[in-house]
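Q: Please design a sequence for this.
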């Protein structure tokens, strides 16, 4: 993703956690109440939200979630390519946190999660331009450049990640070859960047760092040898911390702007949104698969140890970091992006599309349904997805959908088939005997998708909670504040009691 640079030493996780002068450390350790409120900043690829979570650890425990702010997250196309508007997004985060603090002045802490892989380059305290969007085409040659130095089979043994052309190390190869990387002294992934703006602390949370391809799958630390071989400066990578560790107290200027009291700290959560979502899956990990379904569909199982066999690599399964050192062994499926971008294309053509009416029409389709490969890379970039679906069908001798309802049904059926197939493969590769599938996130509201996934997998689907990512964010903070117990099973029992899932039994035929 030359001459190998010197590998520079950096503080370890243990060094960071022992730093008792770090802002917020004292308040983090001293809190001992059994109930309280925290604020979750949850940033998705199309929208963001700030939510308040109240957790009471007394007795059986209770969990309450309340939305205080929602906002769009729209990329911008500049002369250089497709970027995130992180400056605007940060402004929305501040406004949302202001609303949260007005609604609950006693907020104990703030946690931040977002999508993975994308990052900002920083020099001093200055961001060197808005971060590139992972759907930008600039990384087209990044994978080839990286694999010429480190073959993919070796990469997989080292980082455990499935091949995705936008993984951070491939993006960094483009930065390196363009000279931009030489200008930076820090690199922060999106949630770490927001935390830095709030606190002044430059740290990298492990679950999101695990998606860069530069963290050892076994060690959970930056792979300095790999970083050096790829010609990346080791000095830009911040010290790693784990979910539940303090990042720091709000800067005084930020606290004043928000009207926050002294001592409000930002706490590391599972800052990769899927890591937070999996915390809130009310499952028995030894017998369940999960699908965190939104823009992407992340389909997998939770394990104690990674699986980096040749079979796992050939199946393009990934081993990403989870909360408490768990492994999210999963496969990325294109997700509801296929439907949302198709709707955007029809609206660009001048039509008005009401999603619930479209899905009702899709459920009523009786003509034969075409199934396409939802993982085909042609569907990654924005644009005319219905046209690309028709193109795929023509190339494979399959009848293309003839109406918008048929397109929507084809997308749902293709996703359900991809989800079911990924569950079967996850079970085979991991040895987990899957008895139920949990769907969380926005996809849990899509009744047709949940029902057809159950049918195609031949397994019950339990749908919900919808706001799993924010809930997982809240729970990790609440545990750090000692409002509730320590193990993930305790956290999940609170979710199960607070958010009853909808059950879909598989149907024959």
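A: Design:
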């Amino acid at each position: 993703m030359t001459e190998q640079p010197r590998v520079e030493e950096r503080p370890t996780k243990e060094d960071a956690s022992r730093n008792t002068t770090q802002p917020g450390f004292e308040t983090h350790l001293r809190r001992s109440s059994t109930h309280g409120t925290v604020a979750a900043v949850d940033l998705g690829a199309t929208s963001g939200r700030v939510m308040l979570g109240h957790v009471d650890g007394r007795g059986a425990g209770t969990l309450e979630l309340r939305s205080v702010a929602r906002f769009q997250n729209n990329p911008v196309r500049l002369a250089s390519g497709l970027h995130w508007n992180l400056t605007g997004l940060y402004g929305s985060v501040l406004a949302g946190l202001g609303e949260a603090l007005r609604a609950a002045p006693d907020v104990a802490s703030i946690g931040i999660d977002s999508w993975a892989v994308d990052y900002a380059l920083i020099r001093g305290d200055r961001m060197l331009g808005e971060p590139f969007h992972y759907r930008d085409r600039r990384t087209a040659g990044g994978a080839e450049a990286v694999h010429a130095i480190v073959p993919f089979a070796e990469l997989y043994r080292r980082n455990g990640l499935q091949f995705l052309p936008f993984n951070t190390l491939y993006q960094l190869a483009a930065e390196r070859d363009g000279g931009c990387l030489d200008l930076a002294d820090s690199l922060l992934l999106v949630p770490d960047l927001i935390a830095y703006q709030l606190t002044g602390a430059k740290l990298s949370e492990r679950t999101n760092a695990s998606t860069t391809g530069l963290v050892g799958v076994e060690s959970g630390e930056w792979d300095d040898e790999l970083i050096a071989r790829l010609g990346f400066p080791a000095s830009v990578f911040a010290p790693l911390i784990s979910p539940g560790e303090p990042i720091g107290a709000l800067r005084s200027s930020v606290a004043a702007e928000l009207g926050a009291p002294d001592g409000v700290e930002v706490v590391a959560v599972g800052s990769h949104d899927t890591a937070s979502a999996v915390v809130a899956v009310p499952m028995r990990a030894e017998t369940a698969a999960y699908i965190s379904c939104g823009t992407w569909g992340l389909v997998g199982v939770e394990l104690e140890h990674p699986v980096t066999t040749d079979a796992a690599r050939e199946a393009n399964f990934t081993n990403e970091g989870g909360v408490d050192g768990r492994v999210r062994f999963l496969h990325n499926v294109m997700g509801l992006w296929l439907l949302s971008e198709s709707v955007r294309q029809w609206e660009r053509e001048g039509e008005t599309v009401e999603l619930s009416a479209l899905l009702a029409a899709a459920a009523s389709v009786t003509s034969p349904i075409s199934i396409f490969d939802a993982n085909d890379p042609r569907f990654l970039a924005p644009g005319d997805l219905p046209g690309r679906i028709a193109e795929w069908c023509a190339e494979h001798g399959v009848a293309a959908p003839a109406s918008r309802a048929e397109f929507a049904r084809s997308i749902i059926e293709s996703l359900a088939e991809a989800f079911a197939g990924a569950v079967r493969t996850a079970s085979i590769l991991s040895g987990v005997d899957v008895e139920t599938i949990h769907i969380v996130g926005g996809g849990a509201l899509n009744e047709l998708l949940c029902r057809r996934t159950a049918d195609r997998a031949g397994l019950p689907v339990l749908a919900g909670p919808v706001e799993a990512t924010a809930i997982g964010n809240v729970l990790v903070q609440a545990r750090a504040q000692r409002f509730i117990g320590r193990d993930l099973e305790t956290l999940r029992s609170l979710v199960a009691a607070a958010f009853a899932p909808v059950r879909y039994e598989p149907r024959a035929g």
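Q: Thanks. Anything notable?
A: The two ends are 47 Å apart (CA to CA). The longest strand covers residues 62-72.
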